[in-house]
TrEMBL record:
Lineage: Bacteria, Pseudomonadati, Pseudomonadota, Betaproteobacteria, Burkholderiales
Similarity-based family: Belongs to the class-I pyridine nucleotide-disulfide oxidoreductase family.
Domain named FAD/NAD(P)-binding: residues: 7-322
Cofactor binding, per record: Binds 1 FAD per subunit.
Protein name per the record: Dihydrolipoyl dehydrogenase
Cofactor list: FAD
A single MF term (Gene Ontology): NAD(P)H dehydrogenase (quinone) activity
Chain residues that bind FAD: 52, 141-143, 310
Length: 480
């Protein structure tokens, strides 16, 4: 077994790891990038990019069906599942190729392939071939989709989102478990492409929403189009012929068994930290086994170990992973002179239809940090001008601001153009704008953003009429 010595060792070559590697190198440190799997980020291989390719195909199919609402009648719609999936795989491979090319350009001596495990706070063992001694480390090992063992026992037809993008053709039916971002995006896309889809949710959650009013609108909007079974749990999955028998139980205890070609587990992802030998580092860890770390510096305790991206389970999104990696790599290079890095305003977008976006502080967070000290404004998109013109008039936006200061704090929404509105409102939060200043900004006509102005006017009204003993947090928690 050979021994390598380096100043910084990066474990994981995904978005956080690659960004951390470049930051550490820019800091003038000898850096080793260790990867146990194929190169190519989660986003490019099995995440944001291939899912958007599938959604784009689904949107094209949906537009043909929706055209009659405008008096435009298309001919017979035919969905070629093999062609849809061929494009998804081809474009996915193109995106992955860009990542692989980037890693290929790194010096050969900076790369090591194999599974890394800590032997101590300054030593790693990589497979059975290499010992790595380093002064500083960045853990950027990503995450893995969760599949309960009892479901996995039913065989290969129980899948995660990772497997969807390797299909050669669209299946006849899919049971989707989970109403998070992945479950809703893929479930709706497959349904719009002609797949029989049923989505099961143990509770009443919808994507990342926590505002009870927005949640209720979102549940109705999703249920209008999709077979979504809220407050229904999957209690048994068994192999049945070439497919699966899925037994579910609703809130009233009523059980139902149905056949599907696949079951897609979309109940969350687990950080890849449990096979790293972290017990040998001396780091303090939480009840999930994740090292305790500073969210501004990514430093684990006062050690020379930093953690970034999905591995720390904070905000599992590509932009966050890149920011984490940059901060971790910078600080690994300058250790022990660790400094806070730039943490941007939280922004999360679900590319369903209607789209879902949350930005800044969520309703649930404000009920903890600002109980009785924040006002709420809202707008429904049902009668919003441009939304009705486009036949996309479903949804609600709720906006939040601090009493006294009038500072804009955040928003939650489901509705048209949420990916664009989300950015505008996130920028306003990060800029520390008060609501009055936001209302001074230009609004063109007719645009969906006029709905934002309506919500802000409602918010401004409530800010001027602060109640003496009122708290908007009647129910401060997301639905179970």
């Amino acid at each position: 077994m050979k021994t390598l010595r380096t100043q910084v060792a990066i474990i994981g070559a995904g978005t956080a790891g690659m960004t951390g590697y470049r930051a550490a190198k820019a800091g003038g440190k000898q850096t080793l990038l260790i990867e146990s799997n194929v190169y190519g980020t989660t986003c490019a291989r099995v995440g944001c990019m291939p899912s958007k390719l599938l959604i784009a195909a689904a949107d094209a199919a949906h537009m043909l069906h929706a055209a009659s609402g405008f008096g435009v009648h298309a001919g017979e719609v035919r969905i070629d599942g093999k062609a849809v999936m061929a494009r998804v795989r081809s474009e996915r491979d193109r995106f992955v190729g860009f990542v692989v090319e980037s890693v290929a350009a790194y010096p050969a001596e900076d790369k090591l392939h194999g599974h890394a495990r800590f032997l101590g706070p300054t030593r790693l063992q990589v497979d059975d071939h290499t010992l790595v001694e380093a002064e500083r480390f960045v853990i950027a090992t990503g995450s893995t989709p969760i599949v309960p063992d009892e479901w996995r026992a039913a065989g290969p037809r129980v899948i995660t989102s990772d497997a969807v993008f390797d299909w050669d053709d669209l299946p006849a039916s899919v049971a989707v478990v989970g109403t998070g971002v992945i479950g809703l995006e893929l479930g709706q896309a497959l349904a719009r492409l002609g797949v029989r889809v049923t989505i099961f949710a143990r509770g009443g959650s919808v994507a990342q929403l926590s505002d009870p009013e927005v949640l209720e609108v979102a549940r109705r909007a999703m249920s209008d189009e999709l077979d979504v079974r809220f407050k229904t749990k999957v209690i048994k999955v068994e192999q049945h012929g070439d497919g699966l028998a899925v037994t579910s139980e609703d809130a009233g205890g009523q059980q139902r068994t149905e056949q599907f070609a696949y079951l897609l587990s979309a109940i969350g992802r687990r950080p890849n930290v449990h096979q790293l030998g972290l017990e040998n580092t001396g780091l303090q860890r939480d009840h999930h086994g994740i090292p305790l770390y500073d969210q501004q510096t990514m430093q684990c305790g006062d050690s020379a170990i930093f953690i970034a991206g999905d591995a720390n389970d904070e905000r599992p999104q590509l932009p966050e992973a890149a920011d984490h990696g940059r901060i971790a790599g910078d600080n690994a290079a300058r250790y022990p002179e660790v400094k806070p890095g730039l943490r941007r305003t939280p922004l999360a977008i679900s590319f369903t239809e209607p789209q879902i976006a949350t930005m800044g502080a969520s309703y649930a967070e404000l009920c903890v940090s600002h109980p009785g000290r924040f006002a709420v404004g809202k707008v429904s998109f049902h009668n919003q001008g441009r939304s009705r013109v486009m036949l996309q008039n479903k949804g609600m936006l709720r906006v939040y601001a601090e009493y006294q200061s009038g500072r804009f704090l955040g928003a939650e929404m489901i509705g048209p153009r949420a990916e664009n509105i989300g950015h505008l409102l996130a920028w306003a939060v990060q800029a520390g704008l008060p609501v009055d200043a936001m209302l001074d900004m230009p609004f063109y006509h007719p645009v969906v953003e006029e709905g934002v102005r309506t919500a802000l006017r409602d918010l401004a009204h409530h800010l001027k009429h602060e109640p003496a003993h009122d708290c908007p947090c009647v129910d401060c928690t997301p639905a179970p």
